[in-house]
Design a protein that fits this description.
about 270 residues; three-stranded mixed β-sheet; binds arginine
């Protein structure tokens, strides 16, 4: 089955404020032409394998390029739960996302104003349709309940404890076939045990260095896993499971704390072939 991805044109991307540790000392330091080039190369790599819809940039909202945070599309339906961003610096993105999805004929679901939720950046379905929710950094005590009103499959909460890995998609990546990449140090003990229980020997731990390269922030299409940068060790480990890594260098976007997965939003089911 083919999934469609949403990406946002990178023209408006910049680091103009600090809302995560990666953005420290990066204000004004994005090389725009290089960022556009890196985005285009990544777009071309993905387009060889899937359809991509491109949303226009909105320069007043430099993090809009990270479409994973637009919302959470509901599997099999033309409906999306829109994000309620934690930081005011991103809150204006919701209206832009709403307008774009409505134009495409999608139904937009609003969460209560008291719920913090940052979309597919913090909510990942695995191969068995379980939803994993990141908790603690870009969510609040209402998130689990609000999301559960719209999802029929089981939902599990994973507590994030390292501010550098502030969205679940920066430290966890479920893969087709039932395996998953994760960065152990970014979760509390209970969450690590939960992951071990559900994924068993399919749970692949990243080293701290791989975590910092954003190896978990990956997009998997047809057994190809796209990530900012990889190590030989990880290539070999994923090769044994039948996956091939393709690097997509996204250093300019790392200055904002985002890379491959953050730049995409999947509208379809996970690839299993
Ligand atoms: N600067 C953005 C933020 O801190 C980066 C978002 C990255 N997105 C993601 N899905 N991890 O919100």
């Amino acid at each position: 089955m083919n999934q469609t991805l949403v990406m946002c044109s990178p023209e408006g991307f910049a680091v103009n404020y600090e809302i995560n540790p990666w953005m420290k000392q990066q204000i004004g330091h994005v090389a725009s032409a290089l960022a556009i080039h890196q985005w285009q190369m990544f777009f071309d790599q993905l387009s060889a394998l899937t359809a991509i819809s491109v949303m226009p940039a909105s320069p007043a909202w430099p993090d809009l390029v990270f479409t994973a945070n637009a919302g959470l599309p509901l599997p099999g339906e033309k409906k999306i739960i829109l994000s309620n961003f934690r930081h005011p610096q991103r809150q204006g993105e919701t209206a832009i996302n709403r307008a774009w999805f409505e134009t495409l004929g999608w139904e937009c679901i609003d969460l209560p104003a008291t719920t913090v939720f940052e979309g597919a950046g913090d909510a990942l379905f695995d191969a068995e349709d379980r939803l994993w929710l990141g908790a603690g950094l870009r969510s609040n005590e209402n998130t689990m309940h609000s999301i559960s009103q719209h999802i029929a499959t089981p939902i599990h909460r994973l507590a994030l404890i390292d501010p550098r890995f502030y969205h679940l998609d920066t430290c966890f990546c479920p893969l087709p076939g039932g395996s998953a990449l994760y960065l152990p140090e970014s979760f509390d003990d209970a969450s690590r045990s939960l992951l071990a229980r559900y994924f068993g020997s399919g749970l692949i731990a990243l080293t701290p260095a791989e975590g910092e390269m954003f190896c978990a922030n990956a997009v998997c299409l047809k057994q190809v896993i796209f990530m900012n940068q990889a190590t030989q060790r990880l290539r070999e480990e994923l090769d044994r499971l039948g996956f091939m890594i393709q690097e997509a260098p996204l250093a300019e976007f790392m200055k904002a704390g985002g890379s491959a997965k953050c730049l995409t939003l999947s509208l379809g089911k996970m690839e299993c072939d």
